[in-house]
């Protein structure tokens, strides 16, 4: 519904869901387009959010050891959930089964609910009038909040929020999200400098 309410057609919404199988990147792209951002800016934000899947892929490629011919197709299913399920299995065979079952079921359900949501958005008309334009940010917050367990993670999130909201009035739509991505290296650099000055052990977090 968020995508359809942002001006994308039914076909574009379903194609986005089929080709970009990662929720965070989809919501980022749609949110930037809804705010009036250009397609390249929106795509850049979605790309940076999807980079983490490349790191999952490095670990999963070693764990699953799939045939080379299968790997390009399996890459489409490398997301948070399939990585978590696969890495939790005791054997390679169980990891492969977990990856396939989780990836297939989520891919089918995700695209089915995308189709139903887009059809529902067309049926109800103006989604902004129903407050559905807030659905994307609400989903982001719900997914993010439980992950902020350490002081470093909370600091990165807080700085990213300040950068994103503070730059909204002065930068084109979608660009504040890209600038907010600098929060992570900035905080890690600052904490590294602080630890070095105190003589703390590497990896220590407060």
Describe the structure.
The protein has 206 residues and is mostly helical. It folds into two domains: 2-133, no CATH class; 148-206, no CATH class. It is built from twelve helices and no strands. It has helices at 2-5, 10-19, 23-34, 39-50, 52-64, 71-74, 80-87, 92-124, 135-144, 151-167, 175-180, 183-198. Helix 3 (23-34) runs antiparallel to helix 4 and helix 7 packs antiparallel against helix 8. The longest helix has 33 residues, at 92-124. The protein is flat, with a radius of gyration of 19 Å. The model has no long low-confidence stretch (mean pLDDT 81).
Quick overview:
The chain is mostly helical. Helix content is 70%, strand content 0%.
Poorly predicted runs of 5 or more residues: none
Fraction in helix: over 70%
Number of domains: 2
Number of helices: 12
Which structural class fits the helix and strand makeup? mainly alpha
Give the distance, in angstroms, between the N- and C-terminal Cα atoms: 40 Å
Question: What best-fitting shape do the alpha-carbon axes yield?
Answer: flat
Mean pLDDT: 81
Estimated radius of gyration: 19 Å
- Major beta sheet summary: none
Number of strands: 0
Q: Could you tell me the strand content as a percent range?
A: under 5%
Task: Note the run of SSEs as H and E.
Answer: HHHHHHHHHHHH
């Amino acid at each position: 519904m968020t995508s359809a309410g942002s001006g994308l057609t039914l076909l574009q919404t379903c194609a986005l869901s089929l080709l970009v199988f990662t929720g965070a990147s989809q919501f980022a792209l749609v949110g930037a387009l809804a705010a009036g951002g250009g397609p390249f800016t929106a795509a850049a934000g979605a790309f940076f959010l999807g980079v983490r899947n490349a790191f999952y892929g490095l670990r999963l490629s070693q764990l699953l050891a799939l045939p080379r011919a299968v790997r390009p197709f399996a890459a489409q299913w490398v997301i948070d959930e399939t990585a978590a399920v696969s890495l939790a299995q005791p054997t390679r065979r169980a990891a492969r089964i977990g990856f396939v079952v989780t990836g297939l079921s989520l891919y089918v359900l995700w695209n089915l609910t995308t189709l139903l949501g887009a059809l529902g958005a067309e049926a109800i008309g103006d989604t902004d009038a129903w407050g559905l334009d807030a659905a994307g940010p609400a989903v982001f917050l719900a997914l993010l909040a439980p992950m902020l367990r350490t002081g470093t993670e909370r600091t990165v999130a807080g700085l990213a929020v300040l950068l994103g909201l503070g730059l909204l009035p002065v930068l084109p739509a979608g660009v504040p999200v890209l600038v907010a991505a600098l929060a992570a290296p900035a905080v890690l650099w600052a904490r590294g400098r602080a630890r070095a000055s105190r003589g703390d052990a590497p990896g220590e977090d407060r």
